[in-house]
Write a structure and sequence with these properties.
The protein has one domain: Aldolase class I (TIM Barrel), CATH 3.20.20.70. Helices cover 42% and strands 20% of the residues. It has eleven helices and nine strands. Strands 1, 2, 3, 4, 5, 6, 7, 8 and 9 form a nine-stranded mixed beta sheet that branches. β4 and β5 form a beta hairpin. α1 packs parallel to α3. The two termini are 29 Å apart.
Length: 203
């Protein structure tokens, strides 16, 4: 049950929840009611992504309780949309750049978009407040984060970066911190119990 998992993560000390509506991302439906229930069940800020393609989508996600709306495909293909979203919703916008082979992948990771070296500067100019950067090849593998990718992206922007993909252990979290990342998303490591939040949450 997603709500039970959210409550458990909160009890274990999580500082923020990362929720992706995979059905919405793949145009196979939506899970807004479940996301609303998650947001209502915790006091933690929740960042929500998946299928957010219009300003109305952003508003809808924020209205059901999300603290941040994550823009993915819509951002990579249309920086102008990011500019409009940031103008209206400011810091509540988180821009996701999902990377494989040096390119931003779009439409549920099924299509190759522009190179990262083109995407990030354009999104910087659009006013992106912060990035969520996923190393697709590492996602769900527990093989460790792609530190080279994050260092490369950090060299292209002065905005905070949240890293996603490959985290297995507390050492991976510290390595991402030392590389300059603001935060890290971890999922499988918690489910597989190779990482405990108590190892990396302090204070």
């Amino acid at each position: 049950d997603p709500v039970e998992v959210a409550v458990r993560f909160q009890e274990e000390g999580a500082r923020r929840l990362h929720v992706i509506d995979l059905d919405a991302a793949l145009d196979e439906g939506a899970n807004r009611d479940t996301i609303r229930d998650i947001c209502r069940s915790v006091v933690l800020p929740v960042q929500v992504g998946g299928g957010i393609r219009t300003l109305e989508d952003v508003a809808a996600v924020l209205e059901i309780g999300a603290g941040r709306a994550i823009l993915g495909t819509s951002a990579a293909l249309d920086p102008g949309f990011v500019a409009r979203a940031v103008e209206e919703f400011a810091e509540r916008i988180l821009v996701a750049v999902d990377v494989r082979g040096g390119h931003a992948m779009v439409k549920g990771w099924r299509e190759e978009g522009p190179p990262v070296e083109e995407v990030i500067p354009a999104l910087n100019d659009a006013g992106t407040p912060r990035y969520l950067v996923t190393a697709i090849a590492r996602d769900g593998t527990l093989d460790g984060p792609d530190l080279r990718l994050y260092r490369h992206v950090l060299g292209l922007t002065d905005r905070p970066i949240i890293a996603s993909g490959g985290v297995r252990s507390a050492d991976d979290i510290w390595a991402l911190r030392d590389a300059g990342c603001e935060a890290a998303v971890t999922g499988k490591a918690l489910y597989e119990k190779t990482l405990k939040l108590s190892q990396v949450i302090r204070g």
